Amino acid sequence: MSRVKRIAKELEECRQDAQSGVSLRLNNETDLTHLTGYFKGPPGTPYEKGTFQVDINIPNEYPFKPPQMKFLTKIYHPNISSVTGAICLDILKDAWTPILTLKSSLISLQSLLQSPEPSDPQDAEVAKHYISNKVGFDETAAYWTKLYASDGEKDGQAALSDSALYGIDDEIVTQFENMGFPRDKTILVLRRMGIKSFNNVTNKGETENKILEELLKECQ
Amino acid sequence: MKVVVKNWHAIAQWKWDTGNNDADDGDVEGDVCGICRVPYEGCCPSCKVPGDDCPLIWGECSHVFHMHCLLKWIGTAASKQQCPMDRRPWVTAERKVDATTNSAPTP
């Protein structure tokens, strides 16, 4: 089988190359078709200091068909599903060519973290957040990196704050909490309505009323 | 002193003339087929014996592959009939015969 030889070669080359910053590991020593890739988040991005794991499945037709990749590490990025880790990247689909390798694909993923394409989203909610409020997006993405992609040291600072997880301005949640609504229900409703903050809302009063309505329904 | 040669072994080495023989271009991977990653002088994964039965193929774009590897790629719909290296439409180049041999093929 042609793919086995090539995969073995790629693994060996990647092992010898400490420069590239990406690494590959077999999930099972006897199976060359299921691997896990690792790389660091690019500096100067909200993914900085994170280590990201990618699940790699190699099809029978490799290298004539692209490897199937998805993120195992949860990540907040317009071109990666925040739920399943599915990736939207042309070279892993119709722009694949057999001269690309597992290593070059992982490097492409790394540069996808550097330059998101919100106009061709995999996760529409995240892309909307990116386009409407870049600062808020960066905060959430950095928060997810700290929470899910940091190596081991999960100190108290990264304690799970549910509103930050979804990029929701904590002020809104507190506002409704103070009215007596449970925190989890408030976050649920805000997520469902796609509201993250009141910053870009033209008619704040009306939006507040709508949230109230939804909350009352939710809490019946 | 008289030297008598009792027997001798001739050893020959062959290499495909890929047209870019600059050995010192620093590219370690320069001499492998980009599709299967096996050296040009080896054979593609579907063949057992290297040589004339598993030849190379040249594109007008100057890129070289094992013929079997390239044809397999071009045969897939995903290839869109493009060179794997530069994604230009694949056009097989007429093989240029070295200038020292005067039997250059007429295109």
What does this structure look like?
The complex is a heterodimer of chains A (220) and B (107). Chain A is 41% helix and 13% strand. Chain A is an alpha+beta fold. In chain A, strands 1-2-3-4 form a 4-stranded antiparallel sheet. In chain A, strand 1 (22-28) and strand 2 (31-40) form a beta hairpin. The model of chain A is unreliable at 154-158 (pLDDT under 50). With 107 residues, chain B is largely without helices or strands. Chain B has one helix at 67-74, and strands at 56-58, 64-66. A two-stranded antiparallel sheet of chain B has the order 1-2. Chain B is elongated. Mean pLDDT of chain B is 81; it is low at 99-107.
What's the helix and strand layout?
The complex is a heterodimer of chains A (220) and B (107).
Chain A (H helix, E strand, L loop, with lengths): L1 H15 L5 E7 L2 E10 L10 E7 L10 E4 L30 H13 L9 H9 L1 H15 L13 H4 L4 H9 L4 H11 L10 H15 L2
Antiparallel strand pairs in A: 1-2, 2-3, 3-4
Chain B lengths: L55 E3 L5 E3 H8 L33
Antiparallel strand pairs in B: 1-2
How do you describe this structure in short?
The complex is a heterodimer of chains A (220) and B (107). With 220 residues, chain A is of the alpha+beta class. Chain A is built from eight helices and four strands, in the order H-E-E-E-E-H-H-H-H-H-H-H.
